[in-house]
Structures are given as C-alpha cells and as structure tokens.
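Hi U.,

Before I forget, here's the chain from the pilot set. I'm dumping it here mostly so it's searchable later in email.
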Amino acid sequence: MISYARQQTADEQPAIPQAEEHIAPAPRVSVQAFCETAETAAAVQAAAEDRRLGKAHIKIQMGGMAAATEAYRSAPTPNVIILETEGRTDILAGLDQLATVCDAGTRVVVIGKVNDVTLYRELVRRGVSDYVIAPVTTIDVVRSICGLFSAPEAKAVGRIIAVVGAKGGVGASTVAHNVAWAIARDLALDSVVADLDLAFGTAGLDYNQDPPQGIADAVFSPDRVDTAFIDRLLSKCTDHLSLLAAPATLERVYDFGADAFDSIFDTLRSTMPCIVLDVPHQWSGWTKRALIGADDILIVAAPDLANLRNTKNMYDLIKASRPNDRAPMYCLNQVGVPKRPEISASEFAKAIESPPIATIPFDPQMFGSAANNGQMIAEIAAGHRTTEIFLQIAQRLTGRGETKKPKGSFLSPFLEKLRSK
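Structure:
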C-alpha cells in the first residue's frame, strides 16, 4: 500500500502520534536503508531506536539506489529495503535495475521529493510497497515500516496500558483494576487485566475470581504460548472484561529474563483490543521492558516526597526512552489523609513539568468495603465522584471521549450542585 506523507516545514516539530493513532509493532524483520541525505539517515536511525521497531534489525548506508543495486549483486536482499532518491527519472530507472538483483518477497519503500500521481501509479505498477514524500520524520519511517506488516483486513492490534506504582502501597493495583473495569463497562471495549505480580497479586481478590490457571502457566511454558492457550488461561469477569490472574503463591521464585513476557503480550495484542498490565513496584529488566514497550503508561503516586522523587525519575526515564510516543501520565491517589502533611498537586506538576491527570481522594471506608467484598468502586457506589474519576482516567488512557454513561434522574443537576458546595 502506497501512501503520501504530509510534507513538513522546517519550523514544525516532529509529529508525535496521538492516542487515536495506533501504530502496531513490526515483527522480527531485517531492514536496510540506502539514503542520500544526512537528514533522512538521521530519521531512519532514530526510528531504529523506537520501541515499535525493537524486534527489527535495521542497517543504514549512504548512496541511494545505486549503492543498493551494487550491494545486492553479491548478497541476498533483506525483508525491507528503504531507498531515498532525489530525482524523478532516477526512481524508475533505479527500480528497474534493482529488480534484476532483488529477491522475490522483498518489500521496497521509496523516499522521494516528487509528489505526482503519475509517478505514484508507476511505482505501484512496479510493486513498490510504500512511497513517502521527503523530508521524512522519525514517525514517518516507523509508520511506513510497521504498516507493511499490518494488513488492512487484519484484526486491529491491541493497545497495551501499563499501570505502576511510584512506591509500594500507593494503590496502583486498585487503580489499574478499576480503570480496566471502566474501560470494559463504560467504553464497551473488550479488555484483559494481566496481573504481573505473580507472588502477591490482588487482581483475583479484587474481581472475586479464583481461577485454577493464570499467567504463571504461560510464563513458565513459553513454547506453548499461542492464542488458544492464552484463551484457556483467561478468567471471564464480565462480558467485556477478562483476567489473566497471578497465582499469588510462594512455592516458586519468580525470577525472569527481560523478554520473558514478550510472547504473552504479543499474543494478547492479537486477541484483545485493550490490555491493562498491573505492573508490580520493582525495577528489573522485565518490568522496565514492559513499561517502555507499552502504548500508554500510568504512574500512580501518593502525595509525599518519596513518591514525588520516584515519579520524577520514572517519568523522565520513560519519556526519554520513548521519544516518539505520548509522555507517560501520572495520577495522585490517597489524597487528603487526615493530619498527614502532603505535597500538593501543583507542586507535583511543577517538579515533573506535567500536571496529574487525576487526583483520587482518600476514602478508606469505600475502598476497604470494595476490597473486602471483591467488588469495584462502580459496583458499590455508581454515582460517587471517584467512579467518575476512574472513567476519566480510562478515557485519557484509551483516547476515547464518548462514553456510555447511565442516565441520571431529573434531580441529578441539583445533587451535583449540592455536592460541589
């Protein structure tokens, strides 16, 4: 499929995808780029470091089409070739020469400066997979390569949302489970909660589920992981919400390599529109990989100094590791504990240089009742302000503004005014 990228001016900032634009990660493929300008080479190099091309092996050379044709006279071609050219006649003539040494099945992406329908048709006729108008940005390259492996008729790849606490005991799991509930119930989006705290996970308790199998069966049997196997491990909570529960037992030591959960996440992406990861508060290779590899991240923090420091550290590291993604988000939880000195939301915003997306008030009675009953806040207090906060967080994380909100009575406006007073 050939697409034309919008030409950017030098004064514009590189475009960062918004929540509505979801670019599916590329599989394990080899990519070789033959560039003519340093700017394009830099864009391809930056794209190679993007998380969505983490599995791809990208090599960059200068010289354009002539260098590509010469290189493949004595070497096999990769899965994808990126060719930059600055002329019109050079494109067609160069492609004809390249065709004599190019292996069948290799996909070709052309970067050029000519924006012309006739040229576009000629490129299609010659089998070019994508044509991008120069100058290109990092996201243009990422979108082009990943788009080659996302068939239009294929099912949409799921969005991964990772929720993690800035410190232990801040209620990140409770927030994750309630937000997932709002995504499934109010946004009617099929979702799964993956409880990654295998030793002490609470998702089973919060959803009142006790499945005999869960995520441990998958992570300890990576060779068996496929769609059918994962489906058998899922526990159904509601019509739109499923759970991949943690065993919450201590018979085993849960030490994993950095890529231990990759096959599980990839399989979940292919079957579920939304995956919410309940990431435990620990810093290891696999937790860092899970956070950086997610599509959106929510950090849950309490309003004290240690949480501020940890949130700042996590926010800066994740943002630097994902320059082409939305910045991570954070919310403040357990705000308003009686007699406890707290750091205000404005002070958090000043230190992190970004405001919290929500502030959840301290309400031990309501949260304690929900936890002990194995229920969500929306189940025991549907009209409570906190229920609305979880829905707002769900909207921000999924990029969906419209919700299926239950109809209120004719007294609702008056009750809201009383609450605000």
